[in-house]
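Hi all, long-time lurker, first post. I run a small reading group and we've been trying to get comfortable going from sequence to structure in the token notation. Rather than ask abstract questions, I figured I'd post a concrete chain and ask someone more experienced to write out its structure so we can walk through it together at our next meeting. Sequence below, copied exactly:
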Amino acid sequence: MSTPSLYAPREPIFPRRVSGTFRRLKWWILALTLGIYYITPWLRWDRGPGMPDQAVLVDLANRRFYFFWIEIWPHEFYFVAGLLIMAGLGLFLFTSALGRVWCGYTCPQTVWTDLFILVERWIEGDRNARVRLHNAKWSAHKAWLRSVKWTVWLAIALATGGAWVFYFTDAPALLGNLLNGTAHPAAYITIAILTATTFVFGGFMREQVCIYMCPWPRIQSAMMDPDTLTVAYRDWRGEPRGKGKRTDPNVPNTHVPDLAQALHAGTDPVATKGDCIDCMACVNVCPMGIDIRDGQQMECITCALCIDACDDVMDRIGKPRGLIDYMALTDEPRERAGLPPRPIWQHILRPRTIVYTLLWSAIGVGLVYALFIRSPIELTVSPVRNPTYVVQSDGAIRNIYDVRLRNKSLSEAEFRLSLTADTVLRIDLEGNADRDVIVTVPADTSLTQRVYVTARASDPAATAHDTALRFWVEDASTGDRASQATTFNGRVQ
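-- Answer (accepted) --
Happy to help. Here is the structure in token form:
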């Protein structure tokens, strides 16, 4: 006797075409997000001679991130970290207010799956045609349709993988190298991996990625509460379900449970049924293959396509819209009692969402402020500790420092070095016999200059344990200045 399997094979889902407010919104978001993703690497931005002209570029080789007029250096990674924190807080905010709207509208898995389903519908037909084709035996016609569909999917996946690598180097140059076979192997490997994952995830795994691979369905419960607006079914209005044409929206729903009771009571059976006619339209359009009438479920991505499908049916049978709708659990007792739901703003503006909004705004304002107060020049001072100091032939004490100068401007600049201290100290630059303290730094470059600071044997700093000093750097043409504090180590007697 064979042991029964504990695992069930995947049941393929064939969402039916639907039209309505939320479906149009999803189409607009799909077009916008895909347009941004595919087009952005090809946008140009003039930064001057010798600088990359790609508007958005993650230049790993030179450790730079360019976003139009903004340039982020490696030591300024806090800008990237701040943006990631803002993205997380934004996700918390929208989830607490509107449920899994990120999953239903803007998640890459959802966007590309929608695109793949659209291609599938164009080639194989709507739901019924795709179901028949799936159940049909393999034939020349079926093989032809599948081959065409998979070819288009593969082209989309290839464009997706290719667009990603364009963000990391000059897009036109990389495209030419890819076509003539001279690109770096890392580019081909990255494109191959992203092409494969897009093709498999968007074409074949679809809802399985959301259910089994993505952790967000398990985490979202911590962001939601009974005031969160989610897609739900008004069972007090829709039950008991049953077939029958409802044409009068004013017919009362007495909720007689079944046909026998209705006949015994002498009531029109149609008038005793709820608004739900059990047409399965909400199930047939769901990309996750669930029945929203069963209540809230982890698989639901809040895409609201079931709302569009149900509203269309309600229009045709002469019943009010909203049998399936965005609603909060706290409104259920009110609506069951015949009272109107609370305004949407009362659900959205609550302590949790207000806190998320304030935190998100504070980080955003802080990043913008930090961005605009950045100096075009910076310096980093690193004392050389081996040895800590050097005793000169005349008894003078010398300390050695590595001063790293950053020229963030788009033109070459001359930087004048100086120092301030409570005692007399002399500054010299390595390699400058004429004791010139001006250093030329190329555009958008960091340069390390070794600096000597000397105290005469008679100066207090020569015999003190340490003396505070501050290095200054000044742009000779603009007057911009920057400084950093450090210490001078003397020869303790």
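A couple of things your group might point at:
The radius of gyration is 34 Å.
Residues 463 and 491 are 5 Å apart (CA to CA).
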